[in-house]
Design a protein that fits this description.
6 helices; about 0% strand
Amino acid sequence: MTKKNIIKLFIVICWMGVIFVFSAQDAKKSLDTSNKVIVVSAEVVKKRPLTTTEKTNVIKKYKVIIRKTAHFTIYFILGIFVYLFVKDYYPNNKKLIFISILICFLYAASDELHQTFSLGRTPQVQDVLIDTCGSILSIMAMFSITKFKQKCIKTKWWNKIIKRSLKWKLF
């Protein structure tokens, strides 16, 4: 393992640690965190503090969306980190995508299992699916970006675009 690979693995493990810490929160603390995010976001949008009634209404309206978006987002980021780590071992093939998705899926499943040990929390298959979808989207995006970048380098397409844009004074 090179120094670069060790750093990438460290980043993957650290991000998994962040996810682990969120999963270890009891139900009350987890809901409080979500509610704070919702209220602060609403106050930023409205540009004023919310009344107690408004807070209750906005929490009721956006709680599920915010919580599920958080699941999707943290696993979207995990997918990027895992992809970048696995890419060094399986560059540019189907194994890269499969192994990256498998790692993220297994971690999502183990994360939901871990929640059974947190007070008031229960595992949900729906969350594993949302987590995995976030990872799949980021892994496929990273794979597509990598392929596009390689095609540009191989065909020197990007250099042609830059030369033309300089000629047309676009940059």
